[in-house]
Amino acid sequence: MSNIKDLAQQLLREGPVKSLSTSRRIRIRFNGEYILDTTAAKYIWEHDKYPQFYVPWKALKAWKTKEEIAGGEAAVLAIKIGDKETDRVLAFSDTLHNEKAAILAGLVRVEFGAVDQYYEEDTPIYVHPRDPFKRIEILHSTRPVKVFLEGTLIASTTTSYHLYETSLPCRYYIPSTSISDWSLLQSSATRTQCPYKGEAEYYSIVLPNGEKHNDLVWYYDRPLLECTPVTGMLCFYNEKMDIELDGRVLERPKTFWS
């Protein structure tokens, strides 16, 4: 949520969707220095999509109160290290009157994008914490896969990796040698990050009639450890393209990217 004061009011009023304690070591690096090191973090779901880390306020360094919220039950903090400062920090007092919000007492939320890096133990994490109730499975398959865009064959293969990610449609990762005509693919400057898979790079597709479809193909050159089987393999938006599996065209799933 871009307005952390609104987020504070919402959480004080309604409490989080759910929470979970974790004993893993969480560290935050800001402007080259560690501003937090704790083994007492909590996963807090502000909404039902994914969690954030909330950490003990007393473990946070180099902060000052910028603005109190709700009579001091919450506050926006500013953190300054050297010449770098951020105020994307939300803290909750040790005493909260609403029982629904009690789990937040004495905790602070430091926005992921406002710091250099978050770590779980010694592993960098990106975008947001990985949901402990979400998993990824990658299965090798020799079932024939073909990929079409508006009737044009883009790729065809008999070897692929099927990536199953909780709450998302199966994604089909295929070797780059499966592309039928590389002149149809155009490198894109787009980069996105996934907390489970890493940083994705993209291709757009330019059909023989000149029609361009942006960022329909992605791949991971350096995926996170659990997704190394799909290194360098290409994947396609099922929502926007036709995937044929075992000779049958799959129904296009309805998702955020449809």
Q: How would you sum up the major sheet?
A: 7 strands, antiparallel
Task: List segments where confidence is low: pLDDT < 50 over at least 5 consecutive residues.
Answer: none
Beta-strand segment tally: 22
The overall pLDDT, averaged over residues, is 96
Head-to-tail CA distance between termini: 23 Å
Oligomer state equals: single chain
Order of helices and strands: HEEEEEEEEEEEEEEEEEEEEEE
Helix content: under 10%
Structural class: mainly beta
Concise synopsis of the structure shown:
The chain is mostly beta strands and 258 residues long.
Q: Layout of SSEs?
A:
Elements: H1 4-14, E1 18-21, E2 26-30, E3 33-38, E4 42-45, E5 52-56, E6 63-69, E7 74-81, E8 84-92, E9 107-110, E10 117-120, E11 123-125, E12 136-141, E13 145-149, E14 152-157, E15 160-165, E16 171-173, E17 185-194, E18 198-206, E19 212-219, E20 235-236, E21 242-245, E22 248-249
Antiparallel strand pairs: 1-4, 2-3, 2-10, 4-5, 5-9, 6-7, 7-8, 8-9, 10-11, 12-15, 13-14, 13-21, 15-16, 17-18, 18-19, 19-20, 21-22
Structure explained in plain terms:
The chain has 258 residues and is mainly β. It is built from 1 helix and 22 strands. Strands 1-4-5-9-8-7-6 form a 7-stranded antiparallel sheet. Strands 3-2-10-11 form a 4-stranded antiparallel sheet, with no helix packed on it. A 4-stranded antiparallel sheet has the order 14-13-21-22, with no helix packed on it. Strand 7 and strand 8 form a beta hairpin. The longest helix has 11 residues. 27% of the residues are buried.
